[in-house]
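ping. complex inputs:
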Amino acid sequence: MSSNNFSTERSENRPNKIFIVLFVAISFFGFLDATYLTVKFFTGGPIPCSLLDGCDVVTKSAYATLGGIPVALLGALYYIGLFLLSLIILETKNQKLLTFLSLIPAIGFIFSIRLVYLQAFVLDAYCLYCIISAGISTILFALGIILYARQKKATLTYYGTHIRKETSTE
Amino acid sequence: MDNSVDEAPEPLSRQERREERRREKESEKKSHATKRALRRVFNWSIVFALIAASVYGMFTLATSGGGSGALREPITANDHIKGKTDSQIVLVEYADFQCPACKAYFGILKTVEKEYGDRVAFVYRHFPLTQHLNADTAAQAAEAAGKQGKFWEMHDKLFESQDMWASLSAKEAENVFNGYAAGLGLDAVRFKADIISDEITERIDNDFKSGLQSGVNGTPTFFLQGIKVQNSQTYDEFKQLLDGALGEPSQ
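pong. complex structure:
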């Protein structure tokens, strides 16, 4: 990549790093949570609910699979994907991937809203680990928005300086 | 002559020096690149090791249930008991009518029943699992049959014909169960009323809860003399367990 691009964005890159590291950590927790549910789904063990009642109602419901694939497995793949992607970005500092990373959590967030809606209004039962996952998706969504906004600002200032430079040389 | 010899290598050496410097720089760059590549490989292997470890960790966490391995809920007259409670061996089973492993054990238990006769008593408790969509209805059907004194007959029928109803929709499965009830000579009206009664669903729920308390984390789970036993793979292994409990050397 052009080093030119980098030098102007270096100042913006450093604070971004904190958010990407947060992304790595939180998506990893999401992965742990979803993996636990996936294992429970396949081994068929009961899910202990310490705070909420009805874990089994939720994980047993018709909504626990999507096209035959357990939602928990989809969640685990989603989180591990985000985890690896954010690590790749930490290493390569690829701006296009960063934009991509900041936008994906919107999908997970919408999906989580649907799942929480189903638990609240259709099943009338909550599953603790599913709620945790919804919380994690929401945090990732918020982080995504922050990253996207910062990046937009960074590119704007980048072009801004460019234009200013051009006008000053004229 | 001497001069020219001395002078000749001068421009060469300068060029050489330049070349050497260039080469040095290149090799430095190269070693730097390989170092970075190595570090990258190292980092990513750590990442993948971490992922593998966490999957393993979650797997053990999810499959190792809580509970001390002792049966918490004592056997009462309310339980479904086949045999006498004062038999030498009392075997409590937490099972799910739709679980294939339970069906396999059903065969093993039949053999045990034949071989050991009245030295063994069986207690059946419901533990309908989340992913088995008809397991609840099947448990209700067994209970409804139990209301008319035919719990064990329905229990047998459900396991024997598991493949037939396991993949049906809830409605279809209920029809099938109604058919079994008729086959057992049960009062159809009463059966249909009982199968959806609160009393029965509550009872199944209580069984499930008592199972959780005792650390049941899969089906079937057996308690031999009140202690959770490791699931055996074959009849012979199971027989060894029973013989151990009877204090007999296994043949």
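Chain A is about 80% helix and 0% strand.
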